[in-house]
Amino acid sequence: MSVMDNDAAMAPGHDVELNEIDEIDELYDLYEFEEVDDDSVPEVAEPSPMVVEVADASRWSGLEKLQVFSATGATVIYANGHQQIKLIVVVRAVNDAFEGVNLSEGEFNNIHLVDAHSREALEFDYIRDGDPPTWKCNMDKVGHFAPLPYSGEFNGPRTHGPGLFVKEFYVNSNTPSTINLVAAITRADGKVFYSDEEAPFGRVSLKAIAPAVYSRDKFIFKYYANERYDSEAIERLGRYQLHLEAEQHHIKFVSCRLNNLLRTRSHPDKHFIDTYVISYLKGQQVFQEYDPYAEKADSVAIEHNEDGKITLLVHVSKKRISDPLMLNDCLSVEMFLQDMYGNKQVLELRIDPADPTRIVLMT
What is the pLDDT of residue 59? Predict the structure, then answer.
């Protein structure tokens, strides 16, 4: 065995290549869907440049392993700036006697993902709305958004053993494009080593595809009941459910907000005074621009909660609500949704003109 002391490194295994996927329908054929991790979204971190730690002498002379690969074999993400793909870098440094040598903290921190073409390190940061087209990476997983798990055959390199150092990255993009990434490490004396693109697991190719935009027929809007409600303030309660189905897969919603309160006082039956609609996700009321000072049937939303689906309750009151907000009708609102893969959708809800105690989802 020889130790490479130039800017390349040996790595056993095979290449991880990108399967070209041109259509969303084909993408669903290749991937299976998993539960969403509901961890909170991490705080935005400041960009971390590729810093070099310099020491008087390096403890290792070369690399036996410098590999990069997708943790699941998946190489496709949505270019929405939210969904991430997990990449792993494996390093084993050796001395002149080919013995494994520990990396210093500074050297470990200076393991980076590098654009194979430009040799520029990916920026450590989160992508924000309005950022120019880019690829970025971070050490943290954004818990609300699920990856597209790969269902094909995958055999990654060994990640456990004496002298092996492993570093995880989460990569995302806001531009439909392809990027080839290699691993890089800066030794304590400032010398930079790159994984060999031609060697197995020396390079990984990622593809970001345009964010999914679902047609109206993919949104299932079900009406369940308009029943009497045992309350001093509420006469009847209408219950609806909204969920998303694409290629026979349930695509969960992870966030929802409305730009106003859907409401009306225009009832042909004078026994019904005010109608207002409250939406729920995960059994909790979603954010809306205005929140009425009125009774809400939260317990019903909790009882009928289903994972990743929106519950909408149409409250029909017995009494005039004193909240000044209710003086004016709002017969149409916009609902802003985000699915489990980070794709955003906007829908319109309206009071049914034929029956003010019912609502409709617009096409």
Answer: 85
Give the torsion through C-alpha atoms of 287, 143, 246, 172, to 10 deg. 110
- Length of the chain counted residue by residue: 363
Give the per-residue pLDDT at 56.
38
Run means of pLDDT, 10 residues per run, the chain, 363 residues? 36 36 43 42 43 55 95 94 96 94 95 96 93 95 82 82 94 97 96 95 97 95 87 90 92 96 74 84 93 90 96 89 80 96 96 92 86
- CA proximity to 48, closest of 141, 110, 1, 95: 110
* Torsion of the alpha carbons at 147, 222, 305 and 144, rounded to the nearest 10: 20
Chain-centre distance of CA 78, in angstroms?
A: 9
Helices (H) and strands (E) in the chain, counts: 3, 23
This prediction has a pTM of 0.78
Beta-carbon contacts of 197 under 8 Å, excluding residues fewer than 6 positions away, are 116, 180, 182, 203
Question: Which DSSP symbol is given to 299?
Answer: H
Terminal CA-to-CA distance of the chain, rounded, Å? 66
Using an 8 Å Cβ cutoff, are 263 and 274 in contact? yes
Helices (H), the chain: 24-30, 105-109, 298-303
Rg (CA), the chain: 27
DSSP 23-63: -HHHHHHHB---PPP-PPPPPPPPPB-------SS-S--EE
